[in-house]
Amino acid sequence: MELTRRQTLGLAAAAVAGSTVAGTMTANAQRDPWVRDTLSRLTLEQKVGQLFVCYAYGPTADTADARNTSLYGVATPAEVVAKFNLGGVIYFAWTDSVRDPDQIGRLSNGLQAASLAASGVPLQISTDQEYGVVFRFGPPATQFPGGMALGATRSAAFARSAGRIGGREMKSVGITTDFAPDADVNVNPLNPVIGVRSISSDPALVAELVAAQVKGYQRDGGIVSTAKHFPGHGDTDTDSHVGIPEIHHTREEWTRIDLPPFQAAIRAGIHSIMTAHIVVPALDPSGDPATLSKPILTGILRQQLGFDGVVITDSLGMKGVRDKYGDAEIPLRAIEAGVDQLLMPVDPGLAYNSVLNAVRGGRISEARIDESVARILWLKRATGVVDAPYVDLSRIATVVGTPANYAEAQRIADRSITLLRNDADLLPLSPAPRTIVVAGYSPKTLATALQSRGATAIVKDTGTTPTDAKIADAVAAAANADLTVVLTNKAWDTTVTDKLAKQQKLVNTLLATGRPVIVVPVRDPYDVAYFQTEPPTSLVTYGNAAVSMEAVAKVLYGEIAPAGKLPVEIPAKPDPNRPGPAPTLYPFGHGLTFDPEVTRLTVASYNIHAGAGEDNVFDLDRTAQAIKALDADIIGLQEVDVHWGDRSQWLDTLAELAGKLGMYPAFAPIYDLDPPAAGRPRRQYGVGVLSRFPLVRFENHPITRLSTQDPNPVPAPAPGFLEAEVDVRGRRLHVYCTHLDYRADPSVRRAQVDDTLNILAADSRRDLQVLVGDFNAEATAPELAGLWTRLTDSWTAAGKTSGGPNTYPAVAANKRIDFVTVGKGLTVRSAEVPAEVPVAEAASDHRPMIADLSFRP
Domain Glycoside hydrolase family 3 C-terminal, which positions (predicted)? Predict the structure, then answer.
C-alpha cells in the first residue's frame, strides 16, 4: 500500500517524537538513585545475569524438576534464578508455569523472593501473550482475539482496551513484561510464522493499532510492552524457528512497509523491542541476521530512530540465529550489535560464561554491560516491580477473567468476523432448530455455541490433517444434516501444517455433496483460495478463541451483523505455470454484511400426493429425502395419504417422517375413504405440517368443501383446514395448511376463500400468518381475489424467482397448485420451484414451492 504524503510526514514526526520519548530512558536511569546505587554494587557476575531471560521448569519456585538439573545443574526454579542472577524469566505452558492464576501468582512471588535474596534486584517476569493464536496465560484469563482480528475491527479503541485489560490481568499474577504486540506488516500470504499474528498488510493500520496496544499495555495496564520483530518479519516465506528467512525489500520498501509500526510504537513510548532472526540485505549486506546486526540495531534502531529502550532478542534457540555462529558466539555478537537482553539461549551456562569471559578478556567492555543493565534496571523501576515485587494473591480473582473483561473481549470478537461470501443466501440462518454438523479443526467450542441456540450439533473433529476415514465420516454425517459448518486452520499450508492437503480434500468433498456448507477459516483467511471451487458461503475469524466462536454463532443466526473488514487482501492460489502475482480474490477492506434486525424463515408447500411418484408406490425414505432437500423451516403437505397397503394411519407415517427429519409434525384429517375391499385398510386423507420449530399448538378448522364421494353433492363444512402455531423470536407465526376444492369448482372456492378469511381474522393483528396450500387454481383466478386482500402470493411478491412458477404435473408443468401466501409483516425475499428429479427418485408427481421469507421486529 502506498502511503499518502500526510501519512509519511506523520511517521517522520513520529520518529522525532519517539526519539524524545525513548531517549529519556538512559537519562532517567542515570538520574535515578536506585538505578545508580544498584548498578554500582552489583558484581560483574550479577550484571551479566541481568542480561539473560530464561525459563525454568516447575509450577512453584521450590519444585524440583530433573529438566532443570539437566539444563542448569540445579533442581528448582528458585535455584536457577539464584545461580545465574537472572534478570528475567519467561513463562510457558510446557514449563508448567501457567496452570492457573493462583499458581502463577505464587510462582511469581517465589521467584521474586529468590531473586531479591540473590542480588537484591527483582525479576522481570515475561510471557508471549499476543492473544489469538499465540497466548500462554489461558482461561480463566480473558482471551482476546489476536492481531489480525483487531485489524478487521479497524478500532484503535479496541486495541487499547485489549492491552489495558490484558496488562492488568498479567500484572495481577506477577507478569511484568508482555512480548506483544506483533508489529510486523504481513504482506506475504505465504508467511508461515506471522500470518494472523500481524494486524494487517497495511502499514498505516498496523502502526495505528500497535501504538494503541502499546498505550494499553504500558500506560493503562502498567506492564512493559515489547514490539516485535524488528526490523519486520511480515514478508518472509521461511519460519525463523527452522531456517534463516531473507527479506528482499529495498531500503525504500522497508521504509514504506516495515518501518511505520515500529516508529509508531516508539512514539507511543514503547519500553522494549524484540529483534528478528531475519536477513535484510538492503539494511545490512553482511548476511548476518538482524539480531546480530550492528547496522540494523545500533545504526537504525538506536541512532536513526532514537530508540533508547531495552532491545531483547527473539529466542536464541531458533535456527534463524544459530545457523551462522555457534551458541557461545551468538550472545557476544548480539551484545555487540546493540542488544540488551538475551532470550532463552540453548545452553544457558555456556552463554552466560561466554559473556562473562568476553568482558574479563576485554572483548566487551564492562561499560557496555553497564549500559544495558542500566536500561534493564530502569525498566524494572518504571513498571513498579522494584517498589512492589510481590502480588496480592487475594486480589487475583477480582482482576483476572472478570465478566466485564470477557464482555469487552466479546465486543471485539463480534466486530471482527468478516463475511466473505454469501452467494447461496444462507445467512443469516433462521432461528429454527436444525441439525448442524460442525467439522474440521477444533469444532467443539462452536458446536456448543450453536447448541445453545437450539441446534443439534454433531461434532466431527478432523484436526489439521484429516484421515480419509475421518473425511468420509464427516461427509456421511453431512448428508443427513440440515447444514455443515467446516472449520479450517492453515489449509493453504501444504509444506508444514497439512502436507497431504487433507483439509482441502475435506472441504472439497463436502462442497461436492450439494448440501448447504459454510466454510470458516479460523486462522489464516487465505484458506478460501485453496479449494477446487470457491465456497459460496464463507466467513473468517482470524483465530479460534471462544469469544470468536461465539461471535461466529451470533453472525450465523443473525444476532449481530458481520462487521469485520479484511485487513489483508486474499490472492488466488498461486499458479506455478503463470509467473507474477496471483490475481486478487478478495481485496483489502472487503466484508459483506446484512441487517441483523431481519429474521429469516423458509416455508415450503408440497403436494406430496401420498408420497407416490409416477410409479405410484409410497416410499418413506424417498419422501424424507425429497423433503430434506427443500431445507425449509416449515413445510405444508397436501394430499397426505397412504396408498392402499399395510399402513392405514398416515398420522403414524407423518410422525415417522418427522422423526427422520428431526422436525415436529401436525396433522389434520379431511376424511377417511372407505376400504377398497372388505378386510382392506381405510385410507386417511388430510394435510400436515412439518416444522423445525416446536409447535405451540395446532388445530383443525372446519371449512366448506365438497362431499368426499361421487357424484359430489352440495358443499358442506367439514374439518380439513390445519393451523399450526409456532414462536419465532417472540413473534407468533400461524401456519395454515389446506387442500382446497379437490373438484376445482369456482363457487366452492369462493366459499372456501370466505371461510379462510374468517379463520385468519381470529388471529392477533401483531401475529404473522402464512397460508400454504393446494388451490387447483391460478393466483389470478377471480374467485381467489378476496384472498389477496389479506394475503400476498409469494411468487408474485418475490424479489427473485427461479424454476417456476408451475408445480404440476412434473412431466408437463402447466398449473400452479402449490402456493405459499403471506400476511402483513412478512417480506418475500425469493421464491423457487425446484427442478424436477428423475421419476425413480421422485417422492411425488408434483413439484414443491419454496419461499424465503423475512420479518423485522
Answer: 417-593
**Are the CB atoms for 762 and 733 separated by under 8 Å?**
no
Structure confidence at residue 750 as a pLDDT band (50, 70, 90):
confident
Phi, psi angle pair for 795, to nearest 5°: -65, -45
Measured CA to CA, the distance from residue 518 to residue 515 in angstroms comes to 10
Q: Which three cell numbers stand for residue 806?
A: 408451475
Q: Hey, what's the cell of 419? A: 463475511
The total of other beta-carbon atoms located within 10 Å of residue 745's CB is 17
- φ, ψ at 721 (rounded to 5°): -125, 95
Q: How many angstroms separate the Cα of 772 from the Cα of each of 588, 695, 730, 791, 847?
A: 45, 17, 22, 11, 14
Tally of CB atoms within 10 A around 584: 13
* Alpha carbons 14 and 269: distance in angstroms, whole number: 11
Helix H or strand E segment including 801:
strand 800-802
SS3 495: coil
- Running DSSP on this structure, what letter comes out for residue 782? G
What cell was used for 390? 510481590
Which amino acid would we find at residue 726?
Answer: V
- Express each pLDDT in 553-583 by its tens digit: 999 999 999 999 999 999 999 888 888 888 9
Spatial contact of 739 and 638, defined as CB atoms under 8 Å apart? yes
| Rounded Cα–Cα distance for residues 562 and 556 (Å) | 9
Per-residue pLDDT of 263-318, as tens digits, reads 999 999 999 999 999 999 999 999 999 999 999 999 999 999 999 999 999 999 88
Residues 6+ apart with CB under 8 A from 173: 101, 104, 105, 108, 137, 391, 396, 400
In the predicted model, what is the mean pLDDT of residues 361-377? Answer: 97
Query: Which amino acid is present at 35?
Result: V
Residue 169 has which C-alpha cell? 490481568
- Who wins on pLDDT, 825 or 609? 825
Cell numbers for 191, please give them. 508467511
Question: And the C-alpha cell for 517?
Answer: 456448507
Model pTM? 0.90
Going by C-alpha positions, the residue among 730, 661, 719, 651 that lies closest to residue 690 is: 661
Sequence-separated (6 or more) residues with CB below 8 Å from residue 352: 48, 49, 52, 84, 345
Handedness of CA 406, 218, 17, 307 (dihedral sign): negative
> Across the chain, how many H-helices and E-strands are there?
27, 29
Cross-sheet strand order for the sheet of 818-822: 695-705, 716-728, 731-739, 768-774, 818-822, 792-793
Active site residues: 241, 314
Q: Is the pLDDT of residue 754 over 70?
A: yes
pLDDT digits (tens, 9 = 90+) for 193-211: 899 999 999 999 999 999 9
- Residue 789, number of CB atoms within 10 A of its CB: 8
> Residue 581 has which C-alpha cell?
502475482
Phi, psi of 61 (to 5 degrees): -65, -25
Strand 418-422 to strand 716-728: parallel, antiparallel, or no bridges (unpaired)? unpaired
DSSP assignment of 664-700 equals EEEEEEEEEEPPSSTTSPPEEEEEEEEESSPEEEEEE
